[in-house]
Amino acid sequence: MIDLLIGQASVPLINFMVKAPEVFKTANFEGQGTPLNMMFAFIQRIFQDGHQLADEIHSMCAVTLIMAILEHLGGGIQDSLHQINHFYISEMKLAETSHYKNMLIQGIMMNLWYDQNTTISSLETHGSLDYVFSFIISNIEN
């Protein structure tokens, strides 16, 4: 049922990040980990559901959550950039519409703004640095 309400389910998660960012990063729920770890599992699920539904708009909710993580949690999430880039690169390879690809690239560019060195290192590790920058250069007008 939550698959039908992803947008609505995302709102309280973003509110939690906005109102208590330090708690969001450090709280630990026994057996489930931190809210940040649970958020990444939720994001993974949204992407999987988006593929099963063949619905990139559904998957865009996951991108919005990732962007909210960077925007609202601030410092201390550099360790998560590699996982975030993994989500973006995996989705870029499967994305069909230019709107979705551009949203994913916007997310990668937010990562670059947040921490350029870690993001570039991560993209190199993924073997995607050239791919990402070629896409950006070829789509400057968009």
Description:
The protein is mainly α and 142 residues long. 76% of the residues lie in helices and 0% in strands. It has 8 helices and no strands. The longest helix has 19 residues, at 35-53. The protein is globular, with a radius of gyration of 15 Å. The termini are far apart. The mean pLDDT is 88.
Brief rundown of the structure:
This protein is an all-alpha fold. 76% of the residues lie in helices and 0% in strands.
From the structure above, extract its key features.
8 helices; 142 residues
Percent helix among the residues?
A: over 70%
pLDDT under 50 segments (min length 5)? none
Which class best fits the helix and strand makeup? mainly alpha
Indicate the radius of gyration in whole angstroms.
15 Å
Count the strands?
0
Report strand %: under 5%
Question: How would you sum up the global shape?
Answer: globular
Q: What topology emerges from the helices and strands here?
A:
Layout: H1 6-19, H2 21-26, H3 35-53, H4 56-73, H5 81-94, H6 98-114, H7 116-125, H8 129-138
Helix pairs in contact: 1-4, 3-4, 4-6, 5-6, 5-7, 6-7
